[in-house]
Amino acid sequence: MPDVCAVILAAGVGLRLRPLTERRPKALCPVGNVPLLDLALARVAALGLRAVAVNASYLAEQVVAHVGTRAHVSVEPGHPLGTAGALGKLRDWIAGRAVLVANSDAYLSPAELRPLLDGWDGQTVRMLGVPTTPDDPNRFGSCKFAGASLLPWRWVRDLPPEPAELVRTVWRPAEAAGVLEIARYDGTYLDTGTPADYLAANLDAAGGGNLIAPGATVTGRCERAVVGAGAVVNGDLTRSVVWPGGQVAAGEHLVDAIRVGADLTVTVPASSLR
């Protein structure tokens, strides 16, 4: 197998996840009390890949500070360059290697990317995929994209550092050329791009119970709740998430909700939960 580096995409604005992403970039929103970006870094590390880059644009200073020296950081000033433009900007860093591209907002349980690499000959474009319906316009064969793909250098070397997406520059052309392979993923995949999917990912991470971080203070009743470090929960929680440092006052009962600080609550309609 050829030399492979990894690029974790963390530049997005996260419009669908607002107002949560007005406080921090989507990549740093916690799922199971762990920032999504850290979950992505852990998945890559489990593969033994040591050359890792992270791109950043929206609230880039938060991403840069969070990553520190753990990975190379590529900052895209102004607006994000998209999934293909990000690789174009990193072309000199990639330097002839194949690239495993992973979305930081992908939630995978189990957290496993090994199917992308197993048996790869270095020639085809591979995509992690989950089954979808025949009428899904985003399908590739019988599957849709599940947050990660593997690209040979020849598909990366000519990508310019300009706004563009991999679906148009790599995946569809590779599909048309008969060189796109789907590595089927049979676990739980959520892109966490909406409050409903973000809440669903947290509840899945809690495993059907409660996930209370060390350092949280909880005196209220919790049922399928995720509570971050430093949070103070004196009220009740049902299928809800409290971010680190969040507060729920006595007498409050959050249901299908996400609480940030003491003043921001995003409620998810029960009908939209998976």
Question: Please, could you describe this protein's structure?
Answer:
It is a single chain. This protein folds into 2 domains: about 5-190, Spore Coat Polysaccharide Biosynthesis Protein SpsA, Chain A (Alpha-Beta Complex); about 195-270, no CATH class. About 20% of the residues lie in helices and about 30% in strands. The chain is built from 7 helices and 21 strands. The chain has helices spanning about 35-45, 60-65, 80-90, 90-95, 115, 165-175, 195-205, and strands at about 5-10, 30, 35, 50-55, 70-75, 100-105, 105-110, 125-130, 140, 145-150, 180-185, 190, 210, 215-220, 220-225, 230-235, 235-240, 245-250, 255, 255-260, 265. The two termini are about 40 Å apart.
Which characteristics define this entry?
2 domains; eight-stranded mixed sheet; Spore Coat Polysaccharide Biosynthesis Protein SpsA, Chain A; 274 residues; 21% helix; 21 strands; alpha/beta; six-stranded mixed sheet
User: What would you give as the CATH superfamily of the largest domain?
Assistant: Spore Coat Polysaccharide Biosynthesis Protein SpsA, Chain A
What is the first-to-last residue Cα distance?
38 Å
What is the tally of helical segments? Answer: 7
CATH architect. name of the largest domain: Alpha-Beta Complex
The portion of residues forming beta strands comes to 25-35%
User: What's the number of domains?
Assistant: 2
CATH topology of the largest domain: Spore Coat Polysaccharide Biosynthesis Protein SpsA, Chain A
Which oligomeric state applies? single chain
The CATH class of the largest domain is identified as Alpha Beta
How many β-strands, per DSSP? Answer: 21
